[in-house]
Amino acid sequence: MKYDVAVVGAGFSAIAVTLQLLRKLSPHQSVAVIGDDPGFGRGTAYRSEFHIHRLNVAAARMSIFPDRPDDFLNWQMEKGRSVKAGDYVPRSDFGLYLRDRLAELLRQRQTCARVDFIKAKALGCLDIGADTTMIRLAHGGELVARNLVLCLGVGSASIPAPLRDLPETAKSHLVENPWRLGWLSKVGANERVCILGSGLTMVDQVLALRASGHQGMIHVLSRRGLLPHRHDRQPVSPVPPELPETDRRMSKLLAALRKQVRRGAPWRSVIDGLRPHTQTLWQELPDAEKKRFLRHAVPWWTVHRHRLAPDVADDLDRVLDDGRLTVHAGYLQQAELSRPGIGLSYRARGSREIRRLTADWIVNCTGMERAGIDHSPLLQCMEDRGQLQPDPLGLGIMVDETSRLIGRDGQPQHNIHVVGALTAGRFWEITAVPDIRVQANAVAAQIAAELASSPASDVRAATS
Fold first, then answer.
1. Which of 23, 118, 357, 395 fits a 20 to 30 Å CA distance from 271?
2. pTM to 2 decimals?
3. SS3 helix, strand, coil % of the chain, rounded to 5?
């Protein structure tokens, strides 16, 4: 089958692009969505069934459609729920919202493009003409598309090296991917848990443990021991950042933001006011300053920029206050089987002192890996063929300002686009719903315009 567009991926970026293509393409055009995740569009973030797992963005800013900013709130009303603009609702609600909006468009068969969902992993990508790409699938099939949109996201960060050499008997208590929630039922009520990483994923797992009846000691170990800050319960108004006009050194930018806060601007308002300018500012930074930011400032940026819903922050405070959650700042040095449990040695931050803790379970919450290609056979194949090149900062793959893929020859490939975290090297802020929905809308509009200007004679004709 030959399609006008093939969307590769099964997470939020993929559903965002698919929804926009359905709205913009004509009924005689066709879309293939290729992915092997049964929870299409919900991904890891929005499939959790724990009510305590909340969105980190207020409901008023979570519409999937940039031109319908109240759509998520309207959906809540359709379901008979009383949700205010500033509420932080369960993430599962957002997953259901995405599913419903997709289903509504798919039912409009007379006015929307045809969509085929192909449950398979894409393994390779071959050019078979100036405007045609063939995708090889894991089950041995293949399909042809005039346009390709890569929405492959990133993989989970690998476990730290000291844990890889643990004996097999200990690895049964090593949770490499905490979002496979079956591990929670195996943890004894009073068993000791050590969580590696202190970000949003850690908070989710601590609260999930407590909701599952766990009462034991929880140790959190991360390099800096920083915990995410909270959103104000009352929404704050963004304040435009006062930055130097031409000086793009990180030291000068940070000094300007600190000065603005010292003069009385609420820091949350300053961070929120910076958001509309972040992508442009990132692209203006010299490479040396980008590297300096990635090397030194990312953890502090993350805890200020990606904040906790107020209710979630209150729940975390209660666990901290009861004395059964301890946060350690240090560098993991060694892991070994002990009696009982697993012994971890770490160097305390800011010193040479080696400290030790023991746990019955080790949970990897170091977050998502920096966007790369190692998790995807398709991306690895495309690199081998020169169809893409990794971002030099290790932030995904190179794209131009319109999200078109850049090949090894340095030229954009006009019929291949990339959406989501893989474009962080170009855009930096491209992992949250408000950013991805704008990118998905723009990419779908580009594809629709190009298809309208050069229609195929019969894009649905079978190919051999």
1. 395
2. 0.91
3. 35, 20, 45
